[in-house]
Amino acid sequence: MDFAESLKMATKTLSANKLRSGLTMLGIIIGNASVIAMIGIGEGAQKYVSGQLQSLGPNVLFIVPGNREARQLGDLDVPRTLVLADAKALATQVPSVTAVAAEKTTQGIVSYRNRNTSSSIVGTTEGFLTVRSFEVAQGRFLNDLDERSNSLVAAIGSTLAERLFDNESPIGKQIRIKGITFEIVGVLEKKGSSLGLNYDDSAMIPITTLSSRLVGRTSPYGIEVGFISISAVSQEAMETAEFQITNLLRLRHRITEGDDFYIQSQDTLLDIANTVTGALTLMLAAIASISLFVGGIGIMNIMLVSVRERTQEIGLRKAIGASQRDILSQFLIEAVILSAIGGLVGTGLGASGILLIAAISPFEAGVSASAVIVAVSVSGSIGLFFGVVPARQAARLDPIVALRSA
Amino acid sequence: MSALIQFRNIAKVYGAGNTEVRALWNVDMTIDRGEYCSIMGPSGSGKSTAMNMIGCLDQPTEGEYFFDGQDVAQLAEDELAHIRNRKIGFVFQQFHLLAHLTALENVEQPMMYAGIPSAQRKKRSAEALERVGLGNRLNNRPNQLSGGQQQRVAIARAIVNTPLLILADEPTGALDTQTTQDVIDIFSDLNKSGITVVMVTHEPEVARLTNRVIWFRDGEVLNPNLDPSDIASVTAVAT
Fold first, then answer.
1. Do B78 and A12 touch (CB under 8 A)?
2. Is the CB of residue B41 less than 8 Å from the CB of residue B217?
3. d(CA B23, CA B49)
4. How many beta-carbon contacts under 8 Å exist across A and B?
């Protein structure tokens, strides 16, 4: 019997028992939908994270206190060895660096008249604007003079400005940060969040003011910074900059072995993020694959039942001249059709699930063609794989016994 | 007339040692082309085993079986399937029609395994159904047909590949007297057109309509050439 005939026969048999065929497919549908959705979510997360990282600004390096091992161990009590003076030294003594920003963040209540809001208060330096590629919307940003004189001035993010002032212009207004009065000198352009930090909702004040008035002196070496970010002169100069910064900081910190700081480039961050999201995707896909596998077992189960139920039919077909191969291929084709259709429907469901998730979350929609091809062919082969056992059982039935069974 | 079916010293033994069961023992039997005969015997006499063997559904443990001049005792399963498909038409007590297919499609089945194209299959199925008097029931499913009609669909299915032999296993066991007569008439007609018909039955009134009765007992052929009118005497001896 040729393939087209077998295919026609199988669809006829399957559609003769729609409920059972549907239920059999359900396992594969759910399995496939979850594989597609999970891979889509994983890929969406990956795109999202790398998008965030790229929005940090070009050619940026981050210098954070504590060595790499300590940070990887999740040691929260990092040494407070990185100070403002280090940032100043980097700005003046490292030729491959164009701008330097030191940052230290605290949380606090910001209020204007009767409005209060809790937000991040970021102590920083003039270089912040350049390094993190922010634009000033109104007024000006903090400058060196503010920093040297511990001025009580603040530049605020656009979201914070809206929250406190509605449509009023915030420039020149007095706000209170942790009970201390600051004058607003500027408002920044909206930028959105990156890496979970949203400067749009922050108040930026001179780092010297933050240290002396809000958090106090916390490091024995000078004004403590949370991290320093620098921008290098060019993409090519990144490695040079990393080398020069390392040397300078080792000199300044009198280090002979075991750095007390760690330099992260955007690339290393991207690598870390990709590793994490990649592992996440893999894990999600693995979990989803289990349901696909269970769906396959479901097909085997139902096909075994179906062989039992159709013993007489098999006996008859053998009596009227079906060879073992004919019976084998009949049952295999039925299993493959079930799982392939289930795979297609599941893919459709999974894809629409992803689109839905994309619509209600910041993740980008990601139904990759490769995921679809993989899922459908995998579910097809699952049908083939799990169809073999029942099909062989059917093919090997003794026609006499099969015909006599009632 | 030449022999269509020839058993030479056929034995069929199940199990071994103490549990050995001899279903058939030392059976010699010949059925010629064009014969119309029935196989009878009490239950456990080996008549079903003999029928399975005639129909190439089973193979003997010992001996030779020539069907249409070919020794089928040693053939592989797929070769047996081929013989069943082309040379033998089966009719069963329980009809064994496929419930989800129409009469026409049921009759098409043997031709599908013979690799006959769709259009020709449909034409031949319709002709076969016409021949058994069901020309107006082509698109009915088995549950829309009476028992007699279902058995006639089964007969159409048996003759559609123009077999040499019709092998009927208790074909009238599930039918009432009137439809039994109709079905037997069809068999007689088929036999007159040249097809060999072998019927296994336990109904003397059905066997009486055939030309010869082969009487089995205890796995042996007790009487290979019993006159149908003498059935009563044999049945009396047997019981």
1. no
2. yes
3. 7
4. 67
Any B CB within 8 A of A12 CB = yes
Name the minimum distance, in Å, from the CA of B229 to any CA of chain A. 31
pLDDT for residue B180: 93
pLDDT grade, residue A24 (50/70/90)?
A: confident
> Is A88 a residue whose pLDDT tops 80?
yes
**How many C-beta atoms lie closer than 10 Å to residue A266's C-beta?**
18
Q: Break chain B into its structural domains and give their ranges.
A: 35-57+75-238
Contact A225, A84 (CB under 8 A): yes
Please give the Cα distance from A63 to A247 (Å, whole number): 13
* Shortest CA gap B205–chain A (Å): 25
Q: Is A319 close to B55, i.e. CB distance below 8 A? A: yes
Question: CB–CB of A204/A142 below 8 Å?
Answer: yes
Burial B45-82 (b: 16+ CB within 10 A, else e): bbbbbbbbbbbbbbbbeebebbbbeeebbebebeebbb
Helix, strand, coil shares, percent, chain A, to 5: 55, 20, 25
A309-328 residues touching B, CB cutoff 8 A:
312-313, 315-326
Determine the length of chain B.
239
B residues 191..230 contacting A (CB < 8 A): none
Q: What is the mean pLDDT of chain B?
A: 91
Residue B113 in contact with partner chain A when CB distance is under 8 A: yes
**Average pLDDT of the residues in A386-391:** 91
Interface residue B171 vs chain A (CB under 8 A): no
Please state, as a whole number, how many other Cβ atoms lie within 10 Å of the Cβ of residue A128: 24
Would you call B58 and A400 a contact, using CB atoms and an 8 Å cutoff?
yes
| pLDDT confidence tier of residue B67, bands split at 50, 70 and 90 | very high
CATH homologous superfamily of B35-57+75-238 equals P-loop containing nucleotide triphosphate hydrolases (3.40.50.300)
Burial pattern B94-128, b for ≥16 Cβ within 10 A else e, equals: bbbbbeebbbbbbbbbbbbbbebeeeebbebbbeb
User: Which of B159, B177, B171 lies closest to B210 in space, CA to CA?
Assistant: B171
Interhelix angle A324-360/B77-87, nearest 10 degrees:
100
Residues of B in contact with A9 (CB under 8 A): 112
Contact B86 A321 (CB under 8 A): yes
End-to-end CA, chain B? 35
pLDDT tens, A224-247? Answer: 898 899 988 887 888 889 899 999
Distances (CA, A) of A344 to A39, A44, A286, A353, A386: 16, 21, 20, 14, 18
Say yes or no for a CB contact (<8 Å) between A319 and B84: yes
Q: Scanning every residue of chain B, which has its alpha carbon at the shortest distance from the alpha carbon of A404?
A: B94
- Cβ–Cβ contact B120 with A under 8 A: no
**Helix or strand (DSSP H, E) at A230:** strand A227-232
Give percent above pLDDT 90 in chain A: 24
